[in-house]
Amino acid sequence: MLIKRYPGNPILQKDDVPYPVATVHNAGMVKHDNKYIMIFRSHKFNGRSILGKAVSYDGFNFVVDKHPFMIPSKEQPFKKYEAYGIEDPRIVKIDGEYLITYSAYSQYGVRIGLAKTKDFDHIQRVALITEADYRNVVIFPEKFNNLYARLDRPHSEISPWSIWISYSPDLIHWGQSQLIMRPMQYHWDEMKIGPGASPIKTSRGWLNIYHGVFPTMDGCVYRLGVALHKLEDPSVVIAVGDEWILQPEEEYEITGYVHNVVFTCGAIPEPDGTLKLYWGGADKVMCVGTAVIDELVDHCLSNLRQAL
Ligand code: BMA
C-alpha cells in the first residue's frame, strides 16, 4: 500500500463550511508559516464553483475561513472568462510568492487563470495563461534556464488528452510547448491523463502525481499515478509507474457528486521524507493520505511503462 489513507477521512466536507456549498473537493495545498493552507473548490447550489480557504496546524484538522477565498472576478478580462465558475486550484511557491493556477469556465471554454499572493489574505489576478481548452496547469517551483515551466493538459479531438510542458520568461507569455506524456491504450489511464499536484523535487527527479481516467460501462474511473521527470530538464520523463498508486475504494470515493473519483490538486512534502497527499473523493469531500516519497520514486523506476 503506497498511500496510507488517514483514518479520519474525509477531512473536510460541506457541513464544515460556514457558507452554503454542495461540495468540498479538489484542493490546492501548500505550507505557509508552518500552517497547512488548503484552497478548495466548492460547487454552489447553482452548480458553478468557487474557491474556499481552510487552515490547519497538523495537515489533518482544518478550519474553514468565514468567507470564500476567490469567486469569479468582476473585472475584465477575467470576468468574461470566469462567468461559469473557477475550479481545481494548484499552488506553488516560487521567488517568495505563491502562484495559484485555476480553471476558469465560461461560455468560451475552459482557460487557466493565474493569481498570486504572499499571505493568502490579499490575492491578485495576474493573467489568463492559456487559450481554451486547457485544464490542470501545474507550475514548477524552480526556473529552468531562467524560464518558468509548467505542465498542462490541452483537450484534443484527435489525440488522447496528454501532458504537455511549456515555458515562460514572465508567467504571462508561454511557449516552446512539447507533448511529453500520453495515456496508454488498454491501461488504467487510457482515456486521458492530467497533471495533479505541483511537481515535487526529489534527488532522483521531479515527482509528478497525475490522474488517469479509464472509461467503463458504468462511467469513468479517476485514479492517480506517478511519473518522474529529469531534474535539470523536466521535459524528459525518466519513468512512469505502470500501476496506479490510488484508486476509488472507500465509500466517500465511490459515491458522491461524481462517483468513482480520486482527483488530486496538491501534496505536501515533509522534512522527514514523507508526503501528505490530498485528494477530492467523488467530487464531494476532501481526503488525505501519507506516503514515503522514496517509495513513490521506486514505484516509477521499478516497473515502468513508456511515457509516449
Ligand atoms: C475532471 C475535472 C475535475 C473532476 C473530474 C471528475 O474532468 O472536471 O474537476 O474532479 O473531472 O469529475
TrEMBL record:
Query: Has UniProt tagged this entry with the keyword Zinc-finger?
Result: no
Q: Which GO terms describe its molecular function?
A: glycosyltransferase activity; hydrolase activity
Leader sequence range is none
Question: What are the protein's UniProt keywords?
Answer: Glycosyltransferase, Hydrolase, Transferase
Task: Indicate whether Glycosyltransferase appears among the record's keywords.
Answer: yes
- Protein family (similarity comment): Belongs to the glycosyl hydrolase 130 family.
Could you tell me what this protein is called?
A: Glycoside hydrolase family 130 protein
Q: Which organism is it from?
A: Carboxylicivirga sediminis
Lineage of origin: Bacteria, Pseudomonadati, Bacteroidota, Bacteroidia, Marinilabiliales
